[in-house]
């Protein structure tokens, strides 16, 4: 009996030592956002550098966390989302989660940020549009659910993004060495530009895998284009969709990206995977594999399951031959108008194992020049 008591005491101390700091530890704070901010501050001061948002909110006495500004994550930090619902408060115009260096008109690089879901956590953009009748990316970068800007080393995994005000996840401003995995999107296309995952100019060495659910726009999109903004007029954190701006930085290419196991449908009828480069941005060493369009019944059908390049969306000039290369597309099950639509110059690439389930759809639409592109 004495031995069992000693073991129980040891177990209790061990559990206490391993317990993560949570916002419930700061019930005296005025709001859920204040409680989460206080938990992050305490975790940084203690050296723990990890916070868990649990399912039950003790101050609110219900299983929901309503936030009125973005959760800002600093360097070397892990946010654990345990079976919780985190939702933007009504009319809140901000991200749900953002890297801390993207704040107050500054862009300070961050490193080693992890957002890890346990169980079935949900990040919700709200119950309706927070921008009146003007929904979508015209409202700028605060409409994004999770925003990582200039982050070297990041992980976003095991969670659901629901009713985002525009894009679900955006990775931008040269972010690198990251993984986005096991993400489910639950969007209904009742707001514009509800992309799933967007990788922007300058980003590289990123794995995107196991993406599921329904989106309003492209499920995964790599998009690089540049605005000709004079240096004296460049504003970090301005009104645009990229916090870090869309002007040339000298390192704007998108490369070394793997996208695999995407099983999703686009309720806006756009595409499942999109590769788009314009204005001199190069895109190369991209692997796209195991892509399934899950549309059924009366669901809208995609323009193309895989869209490569475009004749539009440039600000200075269209992409040229040699600026998109080493693209591998392998194993696609399509249900839209086209399985693969090549709309911009493409070279030194391979496309194989393409199946279209629709009897009225074509496998390929090649409406742009290609060189040394092997289609099997």
How would you sum up this structure in a few lines?
With 376 residues, the protein is mainly beta. It has helices at residues 2-18, 32-46, and strands spanning 50-53, 65-67, 71-73, 77-82, 85-88, 97-99, 102-103, 106-107, 110-118, 122-124, 146-149, 151-162, 169-172, 176-186, 197-199, 204-215, 220-224, 254-266, 271-277, 283-293, 304-308, 324-334, 338-342, 346-356, 362-366, 370-375.
Note the gap between the termini: 71 Å
Give me the secondary-structure category. mainly beta
How many strands appear in the DSSP assignment?
26
Number of helices: 2
Helix-residue proportion: under 10%
- Beta-strand fraction estimate: 35-45%
Tell me, what's the shape? globular
Mean pLDDT: 94
Taking the sheet with the most strands, its summary is: 14 strands, parallel
Low-confidence stretches: 3-17
The succession of helices and strands, N to C, reads: HHEEEEEEEEEEEEEEEEEEEEEEEEEE
Rg calculated over all Cα atoms: 22 Å
